[in-house]
Amino acid sequence: MPDLIQSHTLTTTPTQQKRHAKEARFKWYGRIAIGLSLGFLVFMFSAIFFRGVGAFTQTRIQLDINFAESLIDPTGERNPDMLARVNTKPLLKSSLSVIFPDVTSRRDTHNLLKLLSISAEYEIEDKIKANPEIIGTQQTLWLTSASQIDLYLKGKINTDVDESLRKLSDQDIVWIKTLIDQGRIKQKFNTTFFTKGDSREPEMAGILGAALGSFFSLVVCFAIAFPLGILTAVYLEEYAKKNWITDIIEININNLAAVPSIVFGLLGLSIFLNVFNLPRSTPLVGGMVLALMTLPTIIIAARASLRSVPNSIRDAALGMGASKTQTTFHHVVPLATPGMLTGTILGMAQALGETAPLLMIGMVAFIVDVPSSVTDMATSLPVQIFLWADSPEKGFVERTSAAIIVLLVFLVLMNLLAVYLRKKLERPKL
Amino acid sequence: MDITDSVSAKASPEIKASPAIKASPPIMTAKNVDVFYGKKQAIKNVSLEIPENQITALIGPSGCGKSTLLRCFNRMNDTIESCKVTGDIRFAGQDIYAKKVDVVALRARIGIVFQKANPFPKSIFENVAYGPRIHGLAESKSHLEEIVITSLKRAGLYNEVSDRLTDAGTSLSGGQQQRLCIARAIAVQPQVILMDEPCSALDPIATAIVEELMESMKENYTIVIVTHSMQQAARISQKTAFFHLGEVVEFGDTDTIFTNPNDERTQNYISGRIG
User: Fold this and answer.
1) Average pLDDT in the A341-369 region?
2) I need a labelling partner for B18 at 20 to 30 A (CA). Which of A91, A142, A153, B220 fits?
3) Mean pLDDT of the residues in chain A
4) Is B170 within 8 Å of A430 when comparing Cβ atoms?
5) Is residue A156 pLDDT above 90, yes or no?
6) Is the backbone of residue A169 left (phi > 0), alpha (psi -120 to 50) or beta?
7) Chain A contact for B79, CB < 8 A?
8) pLDDT confidence tier of residue B9, bands split at 50, 70 and 90
9) B243 CA to chain A: closest CA distance, Å?
10) Mind giving me the DSSP string for A37-102?
11) CB contacts, 8 Å: A316 with chain B
């Protein structure tokens, strides 16, 4: 536009206005996209949080238990075997009858006892086992309530519906009110959730078994995938000649990264379990399968970070007369370490959240015991979430969300560790 | 100028390497060197003699192969897979491409300084100490310190960094970084130092300092420098080779090349008509 140049105009012309409008529009598209995705994230997190937060507290009922010798150990021998098998129901019944003296019928006594979890019986048993001196004394204990009481007090049972349609009878509610009036009901921190394995009863189910299963799997996964992945990446990037063999390897690694994880599970099932006869449902096999899955991720990340080390550094070291290996391990690998570690941790985080391959190798079994080594049967956190989400008991709803919270916390921690390591190990760039 | 004999230029216009130059015995010779990158030939039948304890400049337009030849002198081209070198390159009479030659030993004798200063992202001290360390040149910690300080002094950098040897080498200015790289090369006690456009990223003042440094280094080292600046070649070198399209068009005393070149292409290049 010659006239435009001649006029030396510095104000916005129509064409420029169009360009500005385009830019502004594009900025807003970006902002809307970010806002939407943040919105979804907040919605997801808050939904999980509000659903799951209840699982971190558990209703407990205070009872004055009279550890009567006549009921526990009539012979007075204090035989540990006998004490371990003692029936504690009568103790509970007698202490409940003190609180509710008018409940006498057999059926009502039975229903009254159902206010407590069967876990309460074990809790008393444990007390006796731990300290037999307790026999003959009276103790005030906070015992775990039944799941429906817990749910009722958390407002998760609708009492407006017909009595026959809910698990809590009107009588139960009256009893609970009495207990509340006497200050015998309290929400306490749910230690069971963090210290126990799985259970059929929601109030007795804990996340520790699954968390340790995940932990052991990740240890195995890391021990296999990290050295293999890093060495592969260093060799391919620094030593291997570029020819058709390395090309094929590269293509295959990239393809492996895109293989659906369940395929790795099938591989683990047919190789590790059926050929090598390794123990089923164990973190050992789980970790091996996850390692197969994580390897391509680690290799690709490590190669990328090796490639990002400027060639001038290699030239500098080689020009000094450093050998290839000295150059690689004195200069290139240290510079690539932050990237390699970040890639590894992200790969591990991905492995932590993986469910499908673990289903194939049997880590989906119902396992109550908390694993203590990589060869003990175990589940993992995501599988536990899957199992609980599938359970019919209403008490598992909040536990499912709570388990998701625990899993997310671990994932966030791992990502933070990756960020921290990257910041800490990063050296001044050239 | 200690060079007395001048090139018998006018006698043979097709001069590649003039045998008449005999200021000091050549420490490096290249004979009939061809270099290929894949199928592309970068250097065609080049022969050169690098005299000891002098500065030899390789000049020529971009892509003419001067850096390629420089990198052949300490086999830095080995790192490029597609690169193939034929011909005969000798250092002190030994064929450096012979099978039994260890590139590690070769590069300890023939150091290199690159176009872009590339200190290691480590402390100044560690930068200089790395070479002596990997070659086992220092007997003790104090000896290593001595080597580092001597090298920094020779590179004219010690006074500027003596109080911050633990600072990162990358925190220095561009000119200082380049001198650090020179100090690093010196620390291994090489006989030859190859310089690949060492001043192209430096300002005139830093360039002058590096040039001064080269001038003083020539007593102890043989320097081969690739440069784009003809003024620089004229200022500092005793011998100059003019490259064009992978060939050495003319090689001789710097004075002669710049005042009385016998090839038209050299004439055109130094007068700024091509290049």
Assistant:
1) 90
2) B220
3) 89
4) yes
5) no
6) beta
7) yes
8) very low
9) 24
10) HHHHHHHHHHHHHHHHGGGGEEEEEEEEEE--HHHH-TT----HHHHHT---HHHHHHHHHHH-TT
11) 114, 118-120, 181, 184
Q: What is the DSSP letter of A306?
A: H
B136 touches chain A (CB under 8 A): no
- With contact defined as beta carbons under 8 Å apart, do A194 and A316 qualify? no
Q: Which residues contact B85 (CB under 8 A, 6 or more apart)?
A: B33, B34, B35, B72, B77, B97
Chain A residues inside the 8 Å CB shell of B106: 321
State the Cα–Cα distance between residues A5 and A94, nearest whole angstrom. Answer: 101
pLDDT digits (tens, 9 = 90+) for A209-263: 999 999 999 999 999 999 999 999 999 999 998 889 999 999 999 999 999 999 9
| Terminal Cα distance for chain A, rounded | 45
Instruction: Kindly tell me if the per-residue pLDDT of A423 is higher than 90.
Output: no
- Res A47 pLDDT > 70: yes
Integer Cα distance of B244 and B258 in angstroms? 16
d(CA B198, CA A76): 96
Interchain CB distance below 8 Å, A319 and B119: no
User: What are the structure tokens assigned to A243, written together?
Assistant: 């020819």
Q: How far apart are the first and last CA of chain B?
A: 29
Decide which of A1 and A82 is more confident: A82
Whole-number Å distance between alpha carbons of B201 and B115? 7
- Residue B24: its pLDDT value, please? 63
What is this model's ipTM?
A: 0.83
Structure tokens at A278: 């390794």
- Chain B residues in contact with A429 (beta carbon < 8 A): 121, 170
pLDDT higher than 70, residue B11: no
Q: Do A316 and B120 touch (CB under 8 A)?
A: yes
Strand order in A138-144's β-sheet? A138-144, A57-66, A185-189
Q: CA A216 to CA B197: how far, in whole Å?
A: 56
Residue listed under structure tokens 């290593």 = B144
Chain A residue closest to B170 (CA)? A430
Strands (DSSP E) contained in B133-272 are 192-196, 222-226, 239-244, 247-253
- Cα B84 to Cα A325, B35, B169: the distances in Å are 23, 6, 34
Token representation of residue B164: 């911050």
For residue A193, give every residue at least 6 positions away whose Cβ sits within 8 Å of its Cβ, in sequence order, or none.
A55, A56, A58, A205, A206, A207, A399, A402
Q: DSSP assignment, residue A132? A: G
Cα–Cα distance measured from residue B105 to residue A323, given in angstroms and rounded to the nearest whole number: 10
Distances in Å between the Cα of A308 and the Cα atoms of A78, A159, A336, A430, B107 are 71, 64, 8, 12, 25
The model carries a pTM of 0.82
| Shortest alpha-carbon distance between residue B41 and chain A (Å) | 21
* DSSP result, A379-417: --HHHHHHHHHT---THHHHHHHHHHHHHHHHHHHHHHH
**In whole angstroms, how far apart are CA B143 and each of A217, A278, B129, B133, B147?**
51, 58, 11, 11, 6
Residue-wise pLDDT for A93-111, tens only, equals 888 888 888 888 888 888 8
